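User: I'll paste a sequence; please echo it back and then give the predicted structure.

Assistant: Echoing your sequence first, then the prediction.
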Amino acid sequence: MGVTITPLHPLFAAEVSGVDASATLSQAVLAALMEAIDRYSVLVLRGQKLSDDQQIAFASLFGPPEINIGAHRAASQRRLARVEMADVSNVNPANEVHRRDDKRRMFNLGNMLWHTDSSFRDPPGGLSLLYAHAVPSRGGETEFADLRAAYAALDDETKALVADLHAEHSIMHSRASLGFTEFSESERAALPPVMQRVVRTHPGSGRKTLYLASHASHIIGWPVPEGRLLLRDLIEFATRREFVFVHHWRAGDLVIWDNRCTLHRGRPYPLDERRDLRRVTTADHAAMAEKAA
């Protein structure tokens, strides 16, 4: 059976059938997936059966996986063995659901802010691949926003305003906005703020796109309050309902998204129910060259 692409939203997002992410893929299938990513930016592959090693191997077809920031934590705080794997779950190393006040849960609440994976790093995130091992009975959706469509919908005056702006991005800023500041000195040293363009050209499609995130602290060269207001206005505009696709998770879902032209956020779910999702993100080395241009 060949690869079938079924759109899920008028602007972006599609479901892919005919692909087994645990198998060896032909060059034709890989090319079809890359073309679909460039067109739709969010791909949903249902009914997958993946080990952590298989998920990392599949992600590596699209670029080098980044080392997850959780690798900077003490080994006793990490549940997953592979440092390429982000633990997007509410489960601790003892396989128990987090207590409400668990530090790891407090940190992961930041995933419910609109964000772009690893915009606070150099290089930033390219593609993310999130796989569902277990999902709650209700809630826990992931919402995605199409930043290419949002940029295209901006008025000309705003496009001119943001054309050459840069923002400082920091994981500490996004978490502090929720009141979480418990980073170790080694974590702070390993994750210094970085600068990113507010408008980028998406390399796969050639379309201009906004590049936003809750990690964006302020606009370089502007008074901080003024820059933060602009960033809030842009995120509010880019996440209007016409630009948003909502994914309702099932166990076995593998969702791929392009951080270079989307925002996403998780939604609440019952505190006492298990949610075990694991993410691999590739590093977008091309962004560093564009930022310097």
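Residues 3 and 28 are 10 Å apart (CA to CA). The mean pLDDT is 95.
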